[in-house]
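Researcher: Structure for this, please.
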Amino acid sequence: MKLLTICVPCYNSEGYMASCIDSLLVGGEDVEIIIVDDGSKDRTAEIADRYQTLHPNIVRVIHKENGGYGSAVNTGIQNATGQFFKVCDSDDHLKESAYKEVLDKLRQLAGASPQLDMMICNYVYDKEGEDRHKVIQYRKTLPVGKMFTWDDIGHFHKGHYILMHSVIFRTKLLRECGLVLPEHCFYVDNIYVFDPLPYVRNMYYMDVNLYYYFIGRVDQSVNQKVMISRIDQQIRVNKLMMDYFTDKANQSRINAHLKLRQYMYSYLEIITTVSSVLCIVSNTPENLKKKDELWQYLKEKDFLLYLHLRNGIFGIAMHLPGRGGRALTTGAYKIVRHFFNFN
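Model: Predicted structure, token format:
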């Protein structure tokens, strides 16, 4: 069994995937790199196969019909042989020194009791055209350099969350929780870092800048214009998260730890805010209607949760009346987007 599987979903990634894979190879043979070619139409398959030929004990390539990002991650989870699992997007990379530190710690923790469920590390916004990069770290929120549980975490500020870039999961946990991401849908990374949380007991935070998250391509999924054009997919993910959080089958696990529930509630709140504000920023009758329908969906799903979100500061901001209200909401969003280095 490998120590760590890193899944690299690729779709038409010929222009940048080599930089990503080269950064992962320094982990050596304790690491399994699964390159999932999701029906690419460029030279992605050829490049991936070349890496597998050159590094047969590290790199595995899986070619599949196009199913979208979630489908590629699902394929990685299904085929992983590593004790731990991480996703690295094909236009991102890992920092070598931090990567080696993380692997050393995973070796120490592998097979230990209690077993590690989730490791968290810092990530860096590698924004095109900027010399200084914003680092997202958790040292004021999470215990550093020791195993901890949900009862030990501090307060997460709005906009400061554990994202896909931050986490390494125990592979069996992802399978035990039944995680299956929707196909042909963007923004499923939010589900990836949401649904497994009730199954996570033991965590470890390393205060190292491991993941460099490239941001700045005009065709990138987190580009605002692109997000607005894909608002239906954002709302689809949002509704799936609402479904999961309110599902009675999940309540005993979610409610087992107050801080876990608070964190998941806060994360759901910010995702609902993003969906709503994108509809407002687009300022089309069709999308404004979609925003109202999203909130109505939540109201019918769980009225108490609806009331909590609707009467929170973000819920109020998302429902300010008229053009003046929408202008205030849009202005606030621009400030938040700039502060958090959103694309």
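Researcher: Any notable elements?
Model: The longest strand covers residues 203-215. The two ends are 38 Å apart (CA to CA).
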